[in-house]
Design a protein that fits this description.
Layout lengths: L10 H11 L4 H10 L4 H11 L5 H11 L6 H10 L4 H11 L3 E9 L5 E8 L12 E7 L12 H7 L4 H5 L4 E2 L1 H4 L1 E3 L8 E7 L13 H11 L6 E5 L11 H16 L5 E8 L5 H13 L1
Parallel strand pairs: 2-8, 3-6, 3-7, 7-8
Antiparallel strand pairs: 1-2, 4-5, 5-6
Length: about 290
């Protein structure tokens, strides 16, 4: 069931917020509403009133990006309907904006009053939409120094869309493997992710979970304090050839993101994406339990 922020902003508060933002882009206006506690159906018509030349596709893209980890096709449809776009245009725009299958989310408000979320999805990270579902960092995993593009692996899937992890590894932007088991790529063009964080656990099986916090430490170290409204998507790291169980990895990723989202670090959304359809039910059950803990 979709989680919606219970205490959203009034229309007057949304307009006041948009006015205070000054001359910003459509996406920046949407992000401003999201981090301030607004939800898409309430914010969309006020945003559209301020950007009357925006097309339904542009609105769909902005809303999907701004509410990363906290929006699904139904909620996006409701938001676009509130803008009074034609029904047929809405259906097409939603299909073009969202590829991942939203499952559920956990929402937080940090010390600065900013709304953030961890979201659970099912789908193919290599099929994310390059505009609406774009993320700042895509987290993948490999065995240490092994970037073989084997069939069925995340590295293999990336290779199929023209992204060679082996080539990226030859010119890393940062290498934190000695302390945090991760390296970060140089910027990547023409994809739905701007950089890759490659997690190379030195342990195997469920022992990997002890090293997952290195993902979040690496992100903080690399992004620094100047970055704003960061969006991260992660695969179910180390659940392939490294042998970690999906439940153990989901728990580690959830807890790590929860800690970082509740800090002053500007991580806005953390999307955990499961590719394996056989894992949907157990991961949904576990995510719900973790959200309540």
């Amino acid at each position: 069931m979709k989680t919606i922020i219970k205490q959203s902003l009034t229309p007057e508060a949304i307009q006041q917020l948009l006015t205070s933002l000054g001359k910003v882009t459509l996406l920046e206006a949407a992000i401003g509403c999201r981090v301030s506690g607004g939800n898409p159906p309430d914010c969309a018509p006020i945003i559209f009133k301020n950007y009357p030349d925006a097309t339904v596709e542009q609105m769909a893209d902005a809303l999907t990006t701004a509410w990363a980890a906290a929006i699904d096709k139904n909620l996006l449809t409701k938001a676009l309907k509130a803008c009074n776009f034609p029904e047929n245009q809405i259906t097409e725009a939603v299909q073009q904006a969202i590829s991942l299958f939203y499952q559920q989310d956990a929402q937080y408000v940090d010390n600065n009053g900013m709304n953030k979320a961890t979201g659970l999805y099912q789908g193919d990270l290599t099929h994310m939409k390059a505009v609406s579902e774009i993320v700042d960092y895509l987290v993948i995993s490999s065995l240490p120094n092994d970037y073989s593009a084997t069939a069925g692996s995340m590295i293999g899937a990336l290779n199929d869309i023209g992204v060679s992890v082996a080539a990226l590894a030859e010119n890393k932007a940062a290498d934190y493997r000695s302390s945090d088991y991760c390296w970060i790529s140089q910027p990547i063009s023409n994809q739905a992710f701007k950089r890759i964080i490659c997690f190379e656990a030195t342990q195997s099986g469920d022992g990997v979970a002890k090293q997952v916090p290195g993902i979040f430490t690496s992100l903080q170290t690399f992004a620094g304090t100047e970055a704003q409204n960061i969006i991260v998507a992660t695969s179910m790291v180390s659940t392939g050839s490294n042998g970690a169980s999906p439940t153990t990895i989901l728990t580690a990723l959830f807890n790590g993101s929860k800690t970082l989202l509740n800090s002053d670090f500007s991580l806005m959304a953390f999307e955990i994406v499961n590719f394996n359809t056989d894992w949907i039910n157990p991961l949904n059950e576990l995510f719900a339990q973790l959200t309540q803990s």
